[in-house]
Automatic annotation (TrEMBL):
<keyword id="KW-0934">Plastid</keyword>
<dbReference type="GO" id="GO:0005886">
    <property type="term" value="C:plasma membrane"/>
</dbReference>
<dbReference type="GO" id="GO:0046933">
    <property type="term" value="F:proton-transporting ATP synthase activity, rotational mechanism"/>
</dbReference>
<keyword id="KW-0138">CF(0)</keyword>
<keyword id="KW-0406">Ion transport</keyword>
<dbReference type="InterPro" id="IPR028987">
    <property type="entry name" value="ATP_synth_B-like_membr_sf"/>
</dbReference>
<dbReference type="InterPro" id="IPR050059">
    <property type="entry name" value="ATP_synthase_B_chain"/>
</dbReference>
<feature type="transmembrane region" description="Helical">
    <location>
        <begin position="27"/>
        <end position="46"/>
    </location>
</feature>
<dbReference type="InterPro" id="IPR034679">
    <property type="entry name" value="ATP_synth_b"/>
</dbReference>
<dbReference type="InterPro" id="IPR005864">
    <property type="entry name" value="ATP_synth_F0_bsu_bac"/>
</dbReference>
<comment type="function">
    <text>F(1)F(0) ATP synthase produces ATP from ADP in the presence of a proton or sodium gradient. F-type ATPases consist of two structural domains, F(1) containing the extramembraneous catalytic core and F(0) containing the membrane proton channel, linked together by a central stalk and a peripheral stalk. During catalysis, ATP synthesis in the catalytic domain of F(1) is coupled via a rotary mechanism of the central stalk subunits to proton translocation.</text>
</comment>
<comment type="subunit">
    <text>F-type ATPases have 2 components, F(1) - the catalytic core - and F(0) - the membrane proton channel. F(1) has five subunits: alpha(3), beta(3), gamma(1), delta(1), epsilon(1). F(0) has four main subunits: a(1), b(1), b'(1) and c(10-14). The alpha and beta chains form an alternating ring which encloses part of the gamma chain. F(1) is attached to F(0) by a central stalk formed by the gamma and epsilon chains, while a peripheral stalk is formed by the delta, b and b' chains.</text>
</comment>
<dbReference type="GO" id="GO:0046961">
    <property type="term" value="F:proton-transporting ATPase activity, rotational mechanism"/>
</dbReference>
<keyword id="KW-0812">Transmembrane</keyword>
<keyword id="KW-0066">ATP synthesis</keyword>
<comment type="similarity">
    <text>Belongs to the ATPase B chain family.</text>
</comment>
<dbReference type="Pfam" id="PF00430">
    <property type="entry name" value="ATP-synt_B"/>
</dbReference>
């Protein structure tokens, strides 16, 4: 039979030798293993991931820079096109005003010419009527003279 005392002594000696922290050759070996794993992880995983993140950050930074420069260029082009459009509208309005003025000038000239033509026609008609009136009066005078001579002759003969 196994003696209960022997079991307790074996158990007590095990506790005395390997407590919670046992500072024997395994501790430096574990520390060395931890450092080697840290270096390997750093070389194999952390540096490539950091490089990928740095490249991505650089890509995003370049994209933002190019996008902001493109936006500035687009804004400048928009302002330029708006100015050109405003100038074109102003020129178009000036052209329309000039065309309206020219049309009004032409219309007023034509109206003035038509009035002059109408006045000329009226004066020509008035002169023609005066000439016809003079001719009619002369012919009436001559007819009156002839009739009066005929009446005189008839009266004197009677």
């Amino acid at each position: 039979m196994i003696n209960l005392n022997n079991i307790l002594v074996i158990q007590a000696s095990a506790e005395a030798e390997g407590g919670l922290f046992d500072f024997n050759a395994t501790l430096p070996l574990m520390a060395l293993q931890f450092l080697v794993l840290t270096v390997l992880l750093n070389i194999l995983f952390y540096k490539p991931v950091a490089n990928v993140l740095d490249e991505r950050d650089e890509y995003i930074r370049n994209s933002l820079t190019s996008a902001s420069s493109a936006l500035l260029k687009a804004n400048e082009l928009t302002k330029q096109y708006e100015q050109e459009l405003a100038e074109s509208r102003k020129q178009a309005q000036d052209i329309i005003k000039d065309a309206q003025k020219q049309a009004q000038d032409i219309v007023s000239e034509q109206i003035q010419q038509a009035q002059q033509d109408a006045e000329q026609l009226i004066s020509d008609a008035y002169r023609e009527l005066n000439i016809q009136k003079q001719d009619a009066l002369k012919s009436l005078e001559s007819q009156v003279d002839i009739l009066s001579d005929q009446i005189k002759i008839k009266l004197l003969n009677n």
